[in-house]
Amino acid sequence: MQPPLIVRLRGVCLVIGVLCVALLGSWFAPQARADGAAAGGDLTVAQSLGARELTVVVRRAEAGPLRIEVVTHVGTAAGMLAVSAVPVDRGGETSTGTVELGDRPGIYAATLRVDHAGPWELTVSDGERTARIPFLVAARVVTPWERAAYGGFFAAGALLLVALGTALLSKRGWPTLIPVAALIAAVTVGTTGAVLSGHAPQPRPAGSLLDPTSGNIGDPYPERGLPLTTNYSRPPVNLTVREQPAEAGKPTEVALSLTDSATGRPVDDLLVNDDALLHLMVVSPSGRLWHRHPVRVSPGEYRVSLGLGESGDYAVAAEVARRGGGVQLLRSALRITLRSDSGAADPTRDAPGSPPGGATVTVTEAVSGEPATLTAAFGGAADLQPWLGMVGHLIAVGPLPEGVPAGTAAATVPIWAHAHAMAPLPALGAQPPDESVAAFGPNVAFTFTFPLPGRYLVWAQAERGYSVMTVPATVDVRAGVPQ
After folding, report:
1. pLDDT > 50? residue 25
2. pTM for this entry
3. What is the β-pairing status of strands 467-477 and 454-464?
4. In what order do the strands lie in the sheet with 118-125?
5. Which residue has the higher pLDDT, 232 or 78?
6. pLDDT tens readout for residues 138-174
7. d(Cα 107, Cα 109) in Å, to the nearest integer?
8. What is the 3 state secondary structure string of the chain?
9. pLDDT bracket for residue 353 (50, 70, 90)
10. C-beta of residue 256 within 8 angstroms of C-beta of residue 294
C-alpha cells in the first residue's frame, strides 16, 4: 500500500493538471483572445485613378494569399486593372494579377501572394497611370505577457509529468514536493501572463512611430532602447500644387508635391487616415467642391485628374497624416486659365455627385464658439453606405469676405474644417462596416463649432448606391458673447 502522502500528492498533481488544461482552453478560446484586436486588419484606401473613383481594399495582409478588392462607384468605366504586390526592403517575389471591372458599380476582386512580413507596395495601373499604395504585411507580434503565459503553461505541463513520475518512483514523499512547488510557480506565471495579456495596453501598431522594416515589424516594442525623451514627431509638410499641360478638351492633370519643411526631401511616410493617404479638397471660383484622393506615383508625388471648367482661382487643401506627426491640413491655391479654343473639359464629367431632389442642410442657431448641429437630409430610405470609413463628411470654409469669388476667398479665409458623422463603433477586434453595408441615414447629423462669426460655405457628403452625393449650403454664424 502506498504512503498517504504520495496519494495526496498524486491528487494535487491531478488537480493542477486539470487546472492547466482549463486555463489553456480559456487562453486559446476564440472569444477570449489575449491580443485583443485581430492582427493584420483590412486596409482601405480611396484612389482617384484618372476618371475612376475607386476604393482599394487589402484584406488582412498576412504572409500567404493576399485578397485585393476594388470598389467602383457610379460613373466608373469598365476595363482591366493590373495589380502587383512588390516587396520594399528585402528580397522577395513580386506577385501580379488583374482585376476586371464590370459595367455595374460594386466590388471586384483578385488574389495576389506575399511571402514575408514587412513593408510592401501595391501597384494599381489602368495602363496610363500607376498608383502605388504602401501597406504592411503583418507579423505575429508576441508580447512579454504572452511569452510568460506560453512559457508558464508549457513548463507546468512538463513539471506535471515530472511530479507524477517522481510520485510513482520515489519511496519517500518529500522529493515530489520539489516538482510540485515548481509546477505551482509555473502555473502562477502562466496565469498571470494570460490575465495581463488580455488586459494590459496593447503595443503600438507597427509603423505608427518608426519607419517599418522587415526586421522590426514583428517587434512589439521597436522603440525600446531609445531615450525616453525621444521626439517621434516629424516636421510639417510643404505642399506645392501645379497644373500639368493638358490637351484640348481633356481634364486638367494636377500634380502635388509633398516635401519635408526641414530637409526639403520628399515626404514618403504618410499614414492612411480616414481611408486615404491624401484627402484633396478643391473649391472652384463659383463655389463647386471636389473631394478627391490623388494617387501616389512616387515618393512625395501625387497626381489627380479634375474636370476644371472655369477660369480663375481655385482654393486647394490637402489633409494628410504623417508617421509620428499627426494630421495636418495643407493649403494652397491654383490659378486656371482656359483658352477660348481649348475645348475646355466638361466640368460635369467628374463633378461632385448630385444630391437627390429636396436634399437639404439645416442647422441649429449657429453662434461662434458654441457647438452647432448641422443635419443633412438626403431623403429616401436608411440605405446610406459608409464612405471613407464615415457615414457622412462635412467641409466648412469661412468666414467669407463680401464680393470675392468663392475660390479666391476659400484660399485665404482663416477657417477650413473637415468634420465627420461616424458609424457606430464595432465590437472589439471586429472590422468597421465597409461600403457594402447600406444601413445608415437618411439624415446625417454633424456637430461642429464655428470659431468666428460670419458666412461659411459648407458641403455635406454621403454615399448611396455607390454614388457620392454632395449637398452645398451657406451658414450664417452670429457673434457669441465674449468670454
Report:
1. no
2. 0.83
3. antiparallel
4. 95-101, 79-87, 118-125, 130-137
5. 78
6. 888 888 888 888 888 888 888 888 877 777 777 666 6
7. 7
8. CCCHHHHHHHHHHHHHHHHHHHHHHHHHCHHHCCCCCCCCCCEEEEEEECCEEEEEEEECCECEEEEEEEEECCCCCCEEEEEEEEECCCCCCCEEEEEEECCCCCEEEEEEEECCCEEEEEEEECCCCEEEEEEEEECCCCCHHHHHHHHHHHHHHHHHHHHHHHHHHCCCCHHHHHHHHHHHHHHHHHHHHHHHHHHCCCCCCCCCCCCCCCCCCCCCCCCCCCCCCCCCCCCCEEEEEEEECCCCCCCEEEEEEEEECCCCCECCCECCCCCCCCEEEEECCCCCEEEECCEEEECCEEEEEECCCCCEEEEEEEEEEECCCEEEEEEEEEEECCCCCCCCCCCCCCCCECCCCCCEEEECCCECCCEEEEEEECCCCCCEECECCECEEEEEEECCCCCCCHHHHHCCCCEEEEEEECCCCCCCCCCCCCCCCCCECCEEEEEEECCCCEEEEEEEEEEECCEEEEEEEEEEEECCCCC
9. low
10. yes
Give the three cell numbers for residue 239: 505642399
Of the candidate ranges 34-43, 269-278, 361-370, the one whose mean pLDDT is the lowest: 34-43
Q: What is the pLDDT of residues 407-449, one digit of tens each?
A: 788 888 999 999 999 888 776 666 778 898 999 989 999 999 9
Summarize the confidence of residues 308-327 as an average pLDDT. Answer: 88
Q: How far is CA 33 from the centre of its chain?
A: 23
Within 10 A of 37 (CB to CB), how many other CB atoms are there? 12
d(CA 473, CA 483): 29
pLDDT at 481: 74
- First-last CA distance in the chain: 90
Give the chain's largest Cα–Cα span: 111
Q: Which three cell numbers stand for residue 26?
A: 480559456
The single-letter code of the amino acid at 19 is L
